[in-house]
Amino acid sequence: MERLLDVVGQVSAWLWGPPLIILLVITGLYLTIQLKFFQFRYPIYMLKQTFGSVFKKPKGKGNITPLQALTSALSSTVGAANIVGVPAAIMFGGPGAVFWMWIIAIIGMAIKFSESVLAVKYREKNENGEYVGGPMYYMTKGLNMKWLGTWFAFALMIELIPSIMVQGNAVSAAVTETFNVSGLVTGIITAVLVGLVVFGGITRIGKVTELVVPFMALFYVGAGLIIVVINFSEIPEVFSLIFSYAFQPMAAIGGFGGAAIAETIRWGFARGLYSNESGLGTAPIAHAAATTDHPVRQGFWAVMGIVIDTLIICSATAFVVLSSGVWTREGAIEDPSALTAAAFASYFGQTGSVIVTISLIFFVVSTIMVVIFYGAKQAEFLFGNSAGNIMKIVYLAAIILGSIGGARIIWQFLDLTLAAVLIPNVIAVLLLSKEVKQLKEEFFNSEKYYLKDIKKEKEAS
Questions:
Q1: 20 to 30 A from 221, CA-CA: which of 49, 306, 385, 443?
Q2: Closest by alpha carbon to 422, among 310, 282, 303, 304?
Q3: What are phi and psi of 252, to 5 degrees?
Q4: Rounded Cα distance, 9 and 169, in Å
Q5: Is 17 in a helix, a strand, or coil?
Q6: Could you tell me if 389 and 113 are in contact, meaning their C-beta atoms sit under 8 angstroms apart?
Q7: Most distant CA pair in the chain: distance in Å?
């Protein structure tokens, strides 16, 4: 068994190294060119159509508001990776990794946009009158490849079991360390709270995430901003570190072991992609339920997900870690995941550690809540509504099992199953890219959408 786990570990490490990073970078660049660099050409318009329209009643059909769809999708992407993953990228790739994290976020916008546009276009209503969509639907209806949709749905449904165990373990470990509560108690309480939300369907999930996600993001980023303000004079130095070492190797200093340029790029790309989940096909499942008058309009909300997750929250972590100097301390490379807590603690004392722990708990619990919904939708697609409810129970049990460290052996397969989800989705998005391009051109050249919005803006000014 140990031999098998070693092989699985080596294959996973290789897959999530150059092969998948190259696949996602090429896909992102290809889609960016296909869509005529829309993320660079229309940033202000997209902001106005998303956050600028939060208090307006959304047009079109759907079960939840576009904001609720975004906060549901963000609940999945904003997680432990934002707090403990970023310092790991800095310790193994150097400060320059942050620059490459930003670059892949901007390129990844084209993938996230395409996935969500396709999810809305090919969505349908289930027996409960809810709009459902995502990769399994655009593979089945758009490509006429039900076998690929079935593969994706089954792979994601299974992948989420070890994923939820890992998340459950992260919550229990954080609570045990800070508040000295047993893992089993934490697991049971988490499972009960999550269960109350997920059995209410996407409408209840949307209402909960609409309240929780903005709060948790503001709480964490706000605390990070205080540290940045305290270190205001360090900001030019932080930017200098990020930009200068993005293009040259960095020598070892203090607790940092040094990094070659290839490692800097690899860690930056890997952290950015792992954090915002571009290409994984999960966020489109949430966006498919949104009330919208055109698939492209909801695609803008998907782009904003990357802005919040990677460009704001991950950047806040990076600035705190770099400006505080904890990354250069002796022994820092031995436990990179503890650096964010150490940075906050160096400014706020014990309160700083509590801030990071509470943020981590919020981030992880909200992730569990939404990924259970994703998994249930895969079961529903494969076997019908009742199967979705059965899988919800399986996932809730996985939280408890993970909180006591159970079945750690299957955690080793997590990255492999993630690849089994990502690869078919990226292939489907590439095969359907012409449809995304047509929908994008239709939106920006129609008197019903973009041109009408621009006309209204001119009249208002």
A1: 49
A2: 282
A3: -70, 135
A4: 20
A5: coil
A6: no
A7: 69
CA–CA gap between residue 303 and residue 31 (Å, rounded)? 13
308 CB burial (10 A radius; 0-12, 13-18, 19+): buried
Residue range 175-205, pLDDT digits in tens: 887 788 898 999 999 999 999 999 988 888 9
> How far is it, in rounded angstroms, from Cα 116 to Cα 118?
5
266: CATH: 1.20.1740
What is the per-residue pLDDT across 231-249, written as a single tens digit (0 to 9) for each?
888 889 999 999 999 998 8
When pLDDT is cut at 50, 70 and 90, the band that residue 254 belongs to is low
CA 95, CA 322: separation in Å to the nearest integer? 8
Residue 390, Cβ neighbours under 10 Å: how many?
Answer: 12
DSSP labels for 237-256?
HHHHHHHHTTSS-B--BTTB
- Which helix (H) or strand (E) element contains residue 125? strand 124-125
Alpha-helix residue ranges (DSSP H) falling in 16-84: 18-34, 38-41, 43-49, 66-77, 80
Cβ burial of 258 (10 Å; 0-12, 13-18, 19+) is exposed
Count the Cβ atoms, other than its own, within 10 Å of residue 455: 11
* Boundaries of domain holding 148: 2-460
First-to-last alpha carbon distance for the chain, in angstroms, is 69
8 Å CB contact between 355 and 220 = yes
| More confident call, 46 vs 10 | 46
Helices (H), 199-234: 201-230
Number of domains into which the chain is organized: 1
Amino acid at 338: A
* Long-range contacts of residues 47-55, Cβ cutoff 8 Å, at least 24 apart: 47/304, 48/453, 48/457, 49/297, 49/300, 49/453, 50/300, 50/301, 50/304, 51/304
Question: How many whole angstroms separate alpha carbon 252 and alpha carbon 250?
Answer: 7
To which residue do tokens 């006429």 refer? 144
pLDDT digits (tens, 9 = 90+) for 318-377: 999 999 888 888 877 887 878 888 889 888 988 988 888 888 888 888 999 999 999 999
- 211: which 2 tokens? 């309240």
Instruction: Describe the chain by its helix, strand, coil percentages, rounded to 5.
Output: 80, 5, 20
- For CA atoms 189, 191, 193, 195, the dihedral sign is negative
Sequential DSSP letters for 308-321: IIIIIIIHHHHHHH
Q: Tell me which amino acid residue 362 is.
A: F
